[in-house]
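Course assignment 3, question 2. Fill in each field.
Student: A.L.
Task: Predict the tertiary structure for the chain below.
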Amino acid sequence: MERGLFALPWVPVNIGGSDLLAKAWFGDTQYRVLLSDLNTVWEEEMTADDIHSRAQDLNKRLRAPTQAFFSHLCSVARPCFSSEDDDQISTAHVTLEHHGDNLTVKLKSELAGLPFFWEFRCTTTPVGVVCRHLVRPLLAGSRVLQRQVEDLVALLARKDAEIQDYQENGAVLSRARLQTEPFEAHRYRENFFTQIVPQMGVTLDSLGFDSELQALYMAVNSGKTGQKRKYSPDSSPAAEDNHISEHHQHITDVPTDVGSSLASQEQNNVKASSGRPQVAESKQAVPLPSAAAAAGSEERSTSRPKKKKAVGLFR
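Answer field:
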């Protein structure tokens, strides 16, 4: 259940007129839900026995087993927590209620011609869960985006060197409006922080979590859980936290030597010469130590012989 929920992204939803971030995982006869308004995070985890007991409390005439009505609950609740337009959500009435520090999502729908009631009774989430599902992935995503910017800066430096080589060999722009100045990373960064960011109007209580951020969130989390390991039902939450923390450190410690050294070397070459450096020089600054190893491993892999594969709800 934890691993299934961990792989899902946060999505912005509107429940009962309130804007929230939601993560919801539904299994065969169990589910787990996380909700947040960026001030508090709530959760609820229910097993088959818990679901059956609550269903009978809320629906006195219901005598069917959990498997018989759980698919209906999923079909009605999933669109509510995934911000998807679904035909069934229009037939269900959803309300949101605060009870002290707790949050209750009430759902009323119709099953087999009779009213079906359900309540997601969410309680405040421990700090460890908040860090595992929100803080750590967002910090790791920020580090990945920083690495992406560094790679783009290095790419721009190589592009400037390529343009300078064309100019030194007599190439002339056919349209003057396409003329650009050599890219300076420090000046661009300073201008972005002082001029662009204030104009963006980003607030700390913004629930914006668009599709690109959701994709980044899933990529970071899949990187954490990418290594194979045996799962033991007797494993403690502390051991699970330690495992996730180790993978988080592995993801966040992305080496930046190549991007940073390449960008600084290219910019120094631009300042040292009256024009932009030759393309050949910038290409030589990027060593590829893994090529020979990859080729060797490919030869070894091809020389090995391949193994053959064995071929009525209510009463």
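Instructor remarks: The longest strand covers residues 114-124. Confidence is low (pLDDT under 50) at residues 225-303, 305-311.
Grade: pending
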